[in-house]
């Protein structure tokens, strides 16, 4: 009762920003190796502004990528419910991307170089993406995997975005067939909770690591 392209596109948006977050780790590792961070430290500026600038720039880049993916999605048959739903769904995805950038900032500051950053970042992101509802419903996965997949942040964010973008009728169908285990509103609240939690943990950790590096 739901076209797969409509199911898939919110998952593609989620996958795109999850893997896009690794650019923060790689970029910071390159900046450290190239001595750019040391130059910034010699300037009369708030140290956190370096990290905020990096994560903010990556948020702008992710926004551009999501817009491009949305246009491609429309071209291949993606049909969202409303403009408001698309904007709300995209904001959830981008806020999640921003929080992940801070996770990757910590990775980039802890490793020795860009190659090491990439080697650490991608194994962290692969399980979160592929053991999620991005591509297939969680209730079609092996039983032992479902408990993790249903509650991890990528599934929650993708389902929130999916419910907002596809509208209440599609969300009701997803609930009816067990693809959604709760309402769109609940997924949105859970997404906000995950985003706030990730920022609350990783912003201070990243700033502290930056000051030590």
What does this structure look like?
With 213 residues, the protein is mainly alpha-helical. It has one domain (4-212). The protein has nine helices and no strands. The chain has helices at residues 4-20, 22-33, 36-41, 48-75, 83-110, 114-130, 143-151, 153-176, 184-212.
Give a summary of the structure in a few sentences.
This protein has 213 residues and is mainly α. The protein has helices at residues 4-20, 22-33, 36-41, 48-75, 83-110, 114-130, 143-151, 153-176, 184-212.
Helix count, DSSP H or I runs of 4 or more residues? 9
- Biggest sheet features: none
- E-strand count: 0
Kindly give the count of domains. Answer: 1
Structural category is mainly alpha
What is the beta-strand fraction?
Answer: under 5%
Inertia-based shape: elongated
Stretches where pLDDT is under 50 for at least 5 consecutive residues are: none
First and last CA, distance: 54 Å
- Write the element-wise H/E pattern from the N-terminal end onward: HHHHHHHHH
Helix share, percent: over 70%
**What Rg, in angstroms, do the CA atoms define?**
18 Å
State mean pLDDT (0 to 100 scale): 89
The oligomeric status of these chains comes to single chain
Sequence-ordered SSE layout with sheet pairings:
Layout: H1 4-20, H2 22-33, H3 36-41, H4 48-75, H5 83-110, H6 114-130, H7 143-151, H8 153-176, H9 184-212
Helix pairs in contact: 1-4, 1-5, 1-6, 1-8, 2-5, 2-6, 4-5, 5-6, 5-8, 5-9, 8-9
């Amino acid at each position: 009762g739901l076209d797969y392209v409509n199911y898939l596109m919110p998952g593609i948006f989620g996958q795109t920003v999850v893997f896009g977050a690794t650019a923060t780790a790689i970029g910071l590792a390159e900046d450290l190796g190239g001595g750019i961070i040391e130059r910034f430290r010699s300037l009369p500026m708030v140290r956190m502004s370096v990290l905020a600038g990096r994560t903010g720039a990556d948020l702008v880049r992710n926004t551009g990528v999501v817009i491009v993916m949305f246009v491609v999605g429309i071209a291949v048959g993606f049909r969202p419910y409303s403009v408001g739903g698309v904007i709300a769904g995209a904001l959830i995805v981008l806020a999640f991307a921003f929080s992940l950038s801070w996770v990757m900032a910590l990775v980039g500051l802890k490793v020795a170089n860009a190659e090491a950053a990439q080697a650490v970042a991608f194994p962290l992101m692969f399980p979160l993406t592929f053991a999620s509802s991005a591509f297939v419903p969680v209730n079609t996965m092996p039983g032992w995997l479902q408990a993790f997949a249903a509650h991890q942040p990528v599934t929650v964010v993708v389902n929130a975005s999916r419910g907002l973008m596809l509208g209440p009728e599609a969300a009701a169908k997803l609930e009816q067939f067990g693809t959604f285990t709760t309402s769109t509103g609940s997924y949105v609240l859970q997404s906000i909770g995950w985003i706030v939690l990730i920022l609350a943990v990783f912003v201070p950790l990243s700033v502290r690591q930056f000051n030590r590096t």
